[in-house]
Amino acid sequence: MDGLLTSGQDAGTARTRPEEDALHRLAVVLQDDLTETNRTILARMASDVELIPQLAAHLIAAGGKRLRPLLTLAAARLCGYRGERHIHLAACVEFIHTATLLHDDVVDESGLRRGLASANAVFGNKASVLVGDFLFARAFELMVEDGSLDVLRILCNASATIAEGEVLQLTTQNDLSTDIPRYFKVIEGKTAALFAAACEVGGVVADRDSAVCGALAGYGAALGMAFQLVDDALDYAADQNELGKTVGDDFREGKLTYPVLVAYAAGDGPERAFWRRTIEDGEQTETDLATALDLIRRHDAIGQTIREADAFARKAKDALATLPDDPLRALMMEAADYAVSRHR
Amino acid sequence: MDGLLTSGQDAGTARTRPEEDALHRLAVVLQDDLTETNRTILARMASDVELIPQLAAHLIAAGGKRLRPLLTLAAARLCGYRGERHIHLAACVEFIHTATLLHDDVVDESGLRRGLASANAVFGNKASVLVGDFLFARAFELMVEDGSLDVLRILCNASATIAEGEVLQLTTQNDLSTDIPRYFKVIEGKTAALFAAACEVGGVVADRDSAVCGALAGYGAALGMAFQLVDDALDYAADQNELGKTVGDDFREGKLTYPVLVAYAAGDGPERAFWRRTIEDGEQTETDLATALDLIRRHDAIGQTIREADAFARKAKDALATLPDDPLRALMMEAADYAVSRHR
Q1: E-state strands within chain A
Q2: Cα B136 to Cα A135: distance, rounded to the nearest angstrom
Q3: Would the CB atoms of A49 and B168 count as touching at under 8 Å?
Q4: What is the ipTM of this complex?
Q5: CATH of domain B22-341
Q6: Lesser CB count within 10 Å: N end or C end of chain B?
Q7: pLDDT tens, position by position, B176-217
């Protein structure tokens, strides 16, 4: 069990890379809030339909970074909020995220999620879809209890945008004619929208004006883009044991990610034919991943992806720079740098 | 194209059984509201991610009864409501229903839905899950625009209850030890909860007190139970062409429905062994459906199911009887009778 939800455990020690990165330090600073959030998550995953807490427990064991709830907590505290609402909204954000992971497991047929067998592999497609639906509904119940229509609007819109991004990803999945703007639209939906909403609602509970909430949303959106780009890079670069993620997942699923777009654009005729066969037609042999990794290296596709991510990290910091200086603001800025540097 | 959404078409003529039943007459009385609801549904299914309106159009072609939105419209009008909010909430109720159908297609692997190939069979599991998520999110966006936290609470709770019911169904699916109370809990979730919420929000937009809203919810819940019981009966009794539903779907999926519970309880040793093999172990041969139908007939399981449904129909009418007499109330009561009589 290495999840943050392990009761009584230091909220920061359990992450898969326990070095003193900015996210770890954010988790330590916000430890009490995070403990309360984890308590709320556990309480609200309860159901007398046994499979629901069972499957929930499986996800809890997998842990996860609690990155999105951490953003809600940080944004609220940065805005000087002193109440309890941000706890419930942080739980709500994690429920939405977990629901999309469950539905993603169905979609992507990925065997590993957070280093453990995916919920799908253990419980089946059916349970993943339905428990995901339950968590979505619970998330909205939490928002209704909170009672802010602004919060509801932000998180409903984010949910619709996430679904649109996932559908767009589905339709671009085997299509090498996908261009960069379209790729960005996919990850704006599937990743950046919830990062943005998670930050923005922190400003809303603190009753801050639209300039502040907009800055927080801008920070979250750019941070989400940076994270996703680096995740995409890591899929062609990471050590599987270290990250709990299978290298080449995206390749095997025929996903068009930034590194592939770069390598395809820079490739010659035979290289493009390789990408068309493996990605568009989904015809892959055992040696293809090695070839793909070689082409990615040859065209510095990882380097280009990281530079793009770095530009988003700068954008994230610029957005935060409009807010008053504060130790929490500094940590949030460092988190943007960490989003990029973690690839090393 | 025989859906109610065909623009300019009489809202009633398109249903699969066009005789003068109570639902048809309700649809005629509420025709203008229904046309507006269909317009709202079309407008809000729009997305610049092309697969979403494409898949939506597939569902629109399939039509469906628009039963749940009809209940919202009827309840609101019965309460004397004269505004526009009930239109949006009726659309929202249909979105939630359509989303659950899409997710059900993934879950049940059923080949037919409303007489056409299911969305799943045409577009694949992935699209069904994600477009379902999009419709859920759109439904909540519509509610947030409406701005009533009471409406949001009712429909969020219903959504969570639906998901719980579906998960419970999943865990009881191959388990003959399922008893009647547990079976009722499944259909309370998967069917009655949304019927109840659809009716209740009609009272809420009309600003009626909790006695009235509670009566409407009670009517909807009992009506939903009656409808589901009769649907379950029809699965072992209906003419496929007439209903657009495959006879024996539930049997092949190993679903425990009321008729099976009755036949199992009344069966002798070899009969119980038959049910265990075909339902619990999922080992079925080509002649098993015929045997199942024979056992269902032998123990009058359809008759018992219909009598149970009739009891719920009476409960539905009793709930409405607490409200003032009105032609619309009379039609809604007749709809409860029709829910049962349509099996003939």
Answers
A1: 112-113, 116-117
A2: 12
A3: yes
A4: 0.86
A5: 1.10.600.10
A6: C
A7: 888 899 999 999 999 999 999 999 999 999 999 999 999 999
